[in-house]
């Protein structure tokens, strides 16, 4: 089970105007620079409920270790899982709320989409490899294998739309 601390997102603490933020807190600008995002992205994540600053002081947002881990998780989900922000929210909320069905469904649906992408990428790679290695001078216009493949594709499309 995911450590609940990772997902702790409470309302930011309001401190006295003269007090300095805790040393482990980073400003929104520092976090944006470290994570390679714009400050507007962090504010957008906040608007979506994905990220809540640990503290606000003088109308500035500050983030602590818990929030940095959450931001790293958001980026990991987007980069490696290619999840949308809606899916990331469902994954995080489902994990935090103990809604196993919700986050498991999100993950299984994304795995199916990735499998389809991988299949298309493999097919594209094979076509490109064939074009690069084809013995014909102009494979696009001369290769009988490509011509047959294109004709089959046209027929499948026509059949799918009822055009005989």
UniProtKB/TrEMBL annotation:
<keyword id="KW-0238">DNA-binding</keyword>
<feature type="domain" description="HTH merR-type">
    <location>
        <begin position="25"/>
        <end position="94"/>
    </location>
</feature>
<dbReference type="InterPro" id="IPR047057">
    <property type="entry name" value="MerR_fam"/>
</dbReference>
<dbReference type="InterPro" id="IPR000551">
    <property type="entry name" value="MerR-type_HTH_dom"/>
</dbReference>
<dbReference type="InterPro" id="IPR009061">
    <property type="entry name" value="DNA-bd_dom_put_sf"/>
</dbReference>
<protein>
    <submittedName>
        <fullName>Helix-turn-helix domain-containing protein</fullName>
    </submittedName>
</protein>
<dbReference type="Pfam" id="PF13411">
    <property type="entry name" value="MerR_1"/>
</dbReference>
């Amino acid at each position: 089970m995911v450590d609940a601390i990772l997902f702790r997102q409470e309302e930011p603490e309001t401190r006295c105007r003269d007090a300095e933020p805790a040393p482990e807190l980073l400003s929104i600008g520092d976090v944006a620079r470290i994570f390679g995002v714009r400050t507007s992205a962090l504010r957008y994540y906040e608007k979506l409920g994905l990220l809540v600053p640990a503290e606000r002081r003088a109308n500035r947002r500050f983030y602590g270790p818990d929030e940095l881990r959450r931001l790293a998780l958001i980026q990991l989900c987007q980069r490696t899982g290619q999840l949308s922000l809606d899916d990331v929210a469902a994954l995080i909320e489902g994990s935090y709320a103990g809604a196993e069905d919700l986050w498991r469904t999100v993950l299984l649906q994304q795995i199916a989409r990735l499998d389809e992408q991988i299949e298309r990428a493999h097919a594209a790679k094979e076509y490109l490899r064939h074009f690069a290695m084809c013995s014909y001078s102009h494979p696009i216009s001369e290769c009988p294998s490509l011509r047959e493949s294109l004709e089959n594709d046209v027929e499948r499309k026509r059949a799918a739309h009822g055009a005989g």
